[in-house]
Design goal:
Layout lengths: L27 H16 L6 H28 L4 H6 L3 E5 H5 L8 E7 L5 H14 L4 E7 L6 E6 L2 E9 L22 H19 L3 H17 L12 H14 L5 H14 L52 H22 L5 H4 L11 E8 L3 H25 L4 E5 L12 E10 L10 E2 L2 H11 L10 E8 L22 H12 L40 E5 L32 E5 L34 H15 L26 H10 L16 E2 L14 E3 L27 E2 L3 H7 L2
Parallel strand pairs: 2-5
Antiparallel strand pairs: 1-2, 3-4, 4-5, 6-8, 6-10, 7-8, 9-15, 10-13, 10-14, 11-12
Length: 755
């Protein structure tokens, strides 16, 4: 649905805040590989049929008619005279993937209803319009979310999924030819209206700022598919959503204005592998504007200093579209960028193909330990509301764990949810857990996250529409006990079904002996009895063949159960789990131990103060001529460095305190936290560090009685020392039974305890 005039934007004018890195055009190789890519995308069924396209247009036309009837109805009800009722108007705009032209079959349509000043959001949009839609037979699954950051009404219209926002302008009459790209449209608008308008304004601006819309669309389709396959497409989970990927791709199109999609994909990975986050990605200079609205600026706004991966929207008021990114999700995305860059280089040498790039990431083979978050409700309507609310809060659990453990315990949230067909109105979410790589391991160091989880559940249970039956349960589950319903066909694979790029790359490194310090193969020995464990390649890990530096997670049970077979020794990298003395009292705790590792590489964005650099008035330096590939890459790198030089300076340590809702008790307790980590109750035989919180919750209905497989162990409150805000001695938290404790101990500790 591109507007006329958006198809040819360059006109010899520079797009972007810097000169391009390269003005080079496509080679014959680029033409061939681009055709291969386009065929791959078609075979992946990323394009809708003509019939579906017509159906979407009809739905949008019908929706536009409905809001026009709605605004006249409420105008008459408010006592406006007949002339104003006759002139009353509302208008539907589209944005997101549909407006960008990169939507696929079955995708929802992001829409915006723009109404006059007398049509309110609370009473009229979420009142009268919602009632009208609910009475229409073609409207199903109507789900209003009025308290969201951007209030939205979700529903299906004749089978087409619609996300409908509302913007109330200061105009008495909405003209049919309204241009919402003008800044004056924001005059006297409330914050929710500004946010709602932002999607449309940003989408249109992106299309104005790319040199070739067609190349942009093909490249963006490619990157969206890649991100979904690799598990890094989800704004709500702390990765990147559709608008974020669009902005990143648009910037690459500006830097290589004459390149075809094949080269743009390759340069995407090359540029963002070298990008020094948190340097912001911007398509144009940030404008202050004349309306006094706050724009992204870490020099003035304290919260902006703590953004880890700023991707700035090009429309006023400019905002960071990726504020959801955490240190853990940033690390994961950087690893994926590195992997993509390596594969693209291998493709140029005919050692890989598009299938290799788009290999799906095996999330449930990547970690030894997971958190499983189960939610349930008593009926479909309650479940839809509860699910939407919990999904919007899951990111807080990742942030809380990172913050309360000083980024030492890293979380990898899966971007989707899973349903057990045998349990109606139920979904499960998963997070992979591992100790931070590349830092010295303290003897007996332990992370007990039960208190953190309990705090998260309490915040979730503050849901204003909470009713009986809405429950949330958080459990620790080992990899070998992941429920079968997460796997295709509900059948657990015995071993990896194919050789992945990581395992293949690892084999090449071992054979050639050319292991690089910043490249680690994905193939790992599975310590729970399977030889097919895969580990995400760590860009900051050193490949080590010596077993004492093996980077693997081990599970050691603190109690021997008759039904549990002993963990077999797979190799010299395995550690033995010592049986506890039969007379020793234990709390059924599950210890997650990590071998001692060494890593010479430091990741800047994880290590405290970081300098944020962007360029508003860059030098007009283009890429110098390169005699060969090596010098060409060096020249590219030099120009890229100039792209990341500028006035914005920021220092980052931990996320802004206000970023974590309901965390006021932690705001002045960095010292208390450190002290309590040392003083919290531990197993008597270990010296460890702990942080705590329970894991089961229901709406006053008592503990959940749902049966789970034996691998799930629910986290419950521990007798821990809760940080005190007034400096007085903390009081123990009452508990029934201590079930789970996540321990990360060094190899030497584990080896010393083994018999």
């Amino acid at each position: 649905m591109a507007s006329p005039g958006l198809s040819n934007r360059n006109n010899g004018k520079r797009l972007g805040i810097t000169e391009p890195i390269s003005l080079g055009g496509p080679t014959e190789y680029d033409v061939i590989k681009t055709r291969e890519l386009e065929k791959y995308l078609q075979d992946a069924r990323l394009y809708e049929s003509q019939e579906e396209a017509v159906s979407r247009e009809e739905v949008l036309g019908r929706l536009d008619q409905i809001v026009k009837i709605w605004v006249k109805t409420i105008s008459r009800a408010k006592g406006l005279n007949e002339q104003l009722v006759h002139e009353a108007n509302a208008k539907i705009f589209t944005f997101g993937s549909y407006r960008l032209g990169v939507h696929g079959p079955g995708a929802d349509i992001d829409t915006l209803c723009v109404g006059p000043r007398h049509a309110t959001r609370e009473e009229d949009f979420f009142g009268e319009l919602q009632r009208m839609l609910s009475e229409m037979p073609e409207v199903t699954e109507l789900h209003p979310v009025p308290d969201a950051h951007v209030p939205v009404m979700k529903f299906k219209f004749s089978g087409v999924s619609i996300d409908l926002l509302y913007a109330k302008l200061s105009l008495w009459v909405i003209p049919e030819d309204l241009d919402i790209s003008q800044d004056s449209i924001l005059q006297n608008a409330d914050e929710q209206t500004v946010r709602s308008l932002n999607g449309c304004r940003v989408t249109d601006q992106i299309l104005r700022l790319v040199p070739s819309i067609q190349n942009f669309r093909t490249t963006l389709r490619c990157m969206r598919l890649w991100a979904k396959r690799r598990g890094v497409y989800s704004n709500v989970a702390g990765f990147l959503g559709g608008i974020n990927w669009a902005l990143l791709v648009a910037r690459i199109c500006q830097l290589y204005p004459n390149a075809l999609p094949n080269m743009l994909v390759s340069r995407f990975f090359r540029v963002y592998t070298q990008w020094r986050w948190p340097n912001p990605v911007m398509l144009c200079a940030i404008e202050e504007g004349s309306l006094g609205l706050q724009v992204w600026d870490p020099r003035r706004n304290p919260k902006d200093k703590y953004h880890l991966m700023p991707i700035i929207t090009p429309a006023y008021p400019s905002m960071n579209s990726s504020y959801n990114v955490s240190s853990s999700t940033l690390r994961i995305m950087l690893e994926e960028f590195q992997r993509g860059n390596e594969i693209c280089e291998a493709m140029e040498a005919n050692k890989a193909d598009w299938d290799t790039l788009f290999e799906s990431y095996e999330f449930f083979e990547a970690y030894k330990n997971y958190l499983q978050i189960d939610i349930s409700a008593e009926n479909a309507d309650d479940f839809r509301k509860w699910k939407g609310w919990v999904e919007s809060r899951l990111r807080q659990l990742t942030l809380k764990i990172e913050r309360h453990t000083y980024d030492m315990l890293q979380c990898h949230p899966h971007p989707g949810d899973f349903s057990d067909k045998s349990r109606p109105f139920h979904s499960s979410y998963f997070m992979g857990l591992q100790r931070k790589q590349g830092v010295p391991v303290t003897e007996g160091e332990q992370f007990d996250i039960r208190a953190t989880v309990e705090e998260f559940k309490q915040s979730v249970n503050r849901y204003t529409l909470l009713v009986h039956g809405m429950e949330i349960r958080v459990s620790h589950v080992k990899r070998r006990n992941i429920p079968n319903f997460v796997f295709p066909g509900e059948v657990r694979p015995l071993r990896p079904s194919k050789v992945t790029w990581g395992s293949r790359r690892g084999s090449e490194l071992k054979v050639s002996g050319d292991a690089q310090p910043d490249k680690l193969c994905e193939g790992k020995t599975d310590l729970d009895g399977s030889d097919g464990g895969q580990k995400r390649k760590r860009v900051d890990d050193t490949v080590e063949t010596d077993s004492k530096y093996a980077k693997s997670l081990h599970l050691c049970s603190g109690e021997v159960h008759a039904a549990s077979p002993p963990i077999s020794t797979i190799s010299s990298r395995s550690t033995k789990c010592e049986s506890m003395d039969a007379n020793k009292k234990v709390d059924d705790s599950i210890a997650v131990s990590l071998e001692k590792i060494e890593n010479p590489a430091d990741i800047p964005y994880q290590n405290g103060q970081i300098e944020v650099l962007s360029r508003c008035n860059p030098p007009n330096d283009s890429l110098p001529a390169a005699a060969n590939t090596s010098s060409f890459k060096e020249a590219e790198k030099m120009v890229l460095e100039k792209n990341m030089a500028g006035p914005y300076v920021s220092h980052q340590a931990f996320p802004e305190l206000d970023e974590l809702e309901d965390d006021s008790e932690y705001r002045h307790q960095v010292k208390d936290f450190s002290r309590n980590m040392k003083s919290s109750q531990m197993e008597p035989s270990e010296e460890s560090v702990s942080v705590s919180a329970p894991v089961n919750s229901s709406n006053g209905a008592g503990p959940s009685t749902d049966s789970y497989n034996g691998g799930l162990e629910e986290l419950e409150p521990a007798e821990l020392m809760v940080p005190s805000s007034n400096g007085t001695p903390p009081e123990p938290v009452a508990q029934k039974k201590s079930i789970i404790r996540l321990n990360f101990t060094s190899l030497s500790k584990a080896a010393g305890k083994s018999s």
